[in-house]
Amino acid sequence: MANHDPDLNLIFQALSDPTRRAMLARLGKGAVPVGELARPTGLALPTVMRHLGVLEQAQLIATEKTGRTRMCRARPETLAATADWLAEQRAIWEGRADRLEAYVMTLMQRGDADGPDADD
């Protein structure tokens, strides 16, 4: 995978934690300082920074230091790429389910769906 492409393993790992999902949801409303993200979690600042590091490594957020304040912002393009991958997977599985349904319908129309013990 190229450096500019999101790493789905890192993204799903980052999204697996409810604290990180809550932080990402908050960032969906706009950029905020780290302290504002930390406040509702009740976690110590070093723990919050580790969570933010995971989100940043997954390219879900970007941080920038302005003076003494570290600002965080969401990177929606990474979620869009993830949504695209999920949509591709969904299409594959829906196609498989459709083919299975068609096969079962064919069997039922031929009478094969009753099985060998149908006359018992």
UniProtKB/TrEMBL annotation:
PROSITE patterns: HTH_ARSR_2. Residues 1-94 form the HTH arsR-type domain. One of its GO terms (molecular function) is DNA-binding transcription factor activity. Pfam families: HTH_20 (PF12840). This is Helix-turn-helix transcriptional regulator. It comes from the Bacteria. PANTHER family: SLL0088 PROTEIN, TRANSCRIPTIONAL REGULATORY PROTEIN.
